[in-house]
Design a protein that fits this description.
Strands 17-16-15-14-19-20 form a six-stranded antiparallel beta sheet, with no helix packed on it. Strands 1-2-3-4-5 form a five-stranded antiparallel beta sheet, with helices on one face. A four-stranded antiparallel beta sheet has the order 8-9-10-11, covered by helices on one side. It folds into three domains: 22-91, no CATH class; 94-205, Nuclear Transport Factor 2, Chain: A; 211-330, no CATH class. It has 339 residues and is of the alpha+beta class. It contains seven helices and 20 strands.
């Protein structure tokens, strides 16, 4: 076989994947266009349409004969948007990455963690693997390296299951699992960027000017031998470690499953630089306002609409209401039900 033909087959083999399913498209749209398709609706069938209905926005999102359709407040009659195939690389970017690039990205990620297999590497070993403009969770290259070397939990850590989230020229965004020294899953990292420089993929970090995170919470309260009560919800962490690069940011709005359609507004706390940001809300059926990074839900119906591995959009705004940054936060599992 001609070497050129063989190389082309190798590069294109990862493209020959099965088409995305309606559920994969719907899940993606619920993240990217949450205001239009909020919640975690069930999939149904009607006259050849595979669809989901979103009662909060009164919109339908459907697939029929390989095309995407919408109906509701955004279209008074069924409106064809585009072929499903047009969204293949947006919904499943990893299948649109050629095998050579995928292998190189996997090597760049896994080989980094291998440096921690027998002990903590030196800063001189790690520095060449991180780009000069590296920034991760508001920390530059030298600070991030110092944190890694000084953390006992990074000893023996392993990075695995690397997947591409986006690829544009020499810039890639990947996700991967972080395992401890015993091989136990600790977290999945999303949004890690790498740039190809002189044929080597260097780490860029997530390029975020805030440290962000999201967790499902279930808290049990008991006082003076009274019956215990369960509080369920979501906690969103926003920490500004270096205010010098984000002094123009006044607030953030977080949207996603289980939250009000308009989202939650978070503002800096009152504890000084780097303090946890907080939101103020009133529980459904309640009257008192609560200020906390933790958003209480306490409604099993709402919790059931939150999928496991849910994704939340964090949009950061300047004082003039202009959008500055959009980040994403992921939870591994939805909150426990109260029943």
């Amino acid at each position: 076989m001609n070497r050129h033909i063989a190389l082309q087959l190798l590069l294109c083999s990862s493209m020959a994947q099965a088409a995305i399913t309606p559920d994969q498209l719907f899940d993606w749209a619920e993240i990217q266009y949450y205001a239009l398709f909020p919640g975690n609706s069930s999939t149904a069938q009607y006259e050849g349409y595979t669809y989901r209905y979103y009662p909060q926005s009164n919109n339908y999102l459907a697939v029929k004969d390989g095309d995407i359709w919408v109906l509701g407040t955004i279209a008074s009659s069924p409106l064809k948007i585009a072929p499903v195939a047009d969204y293949q690389c947006q919904v499943l970017p990893d299948v649109c990455v050629d095998n050579i690039t995928r292998s190189a990205l996997t090597h760049a990620v896994t080989s980094f963690s291998q440096l921690f297999s027998q002990g903590h590497p030196s800063a001189d070993q790690l520095t060449p693997l991180l780009a000069d403009d590296f920034l991760h969770n508001d920390k530059q290259r030298s600070t991030h390296i110092a944190d890694l070397i000084g953390d006992a939990d990074t000893l023996g850590m392993q990075f695995a299951n690397v997947q591409a989230q986006a690829l544009s020229g020499d810039l890639a965004t990947v996700s991967f699992d972080v395992l401890d020294a015993l091989g136990t899953l600790q977290e999945r990292v999303y949004g890690m960027q790498l740039r190809k420089i002189n044929q080597q993929w260097l780490w860029l970090g997530n390029q975020q000017r805030f440290e962000t995170g999201a967790w499902a919470q279930a808290l049990r309260h008991s006082r003076n031998n009274a019956a215990a009560t369960l509080s369920q919800g979501l906690e969103f962490s926003i920490i500004d470690a270096d205010a010098s690069n984000s002094s123009d940011i006044s607030h953030a709005i977080i949207t996603g499953p289980g939250l009000p359609v308009a989202g939650l507004t978070y503002v800096p706390g009152t504890g000084g630089a780097g303090n946890q940001w907080v939101t103020t809300f009133t529980q459904p059926g309640g009257t008192a306002s609560i200020t906390s990074p933790y958003y209480q839900i306490n409604n099993d119906t709402t919790i059931q609409r939150i999928p496991n591995a849910a994704i939340y959009q964090m949009q950061f705004y300047r004082a003039d209401a202009s959008l500055a940054y959009t980040y994403q936060a992921h939870i591994l599992q939805r909150p426990h039900l109260g029943a």
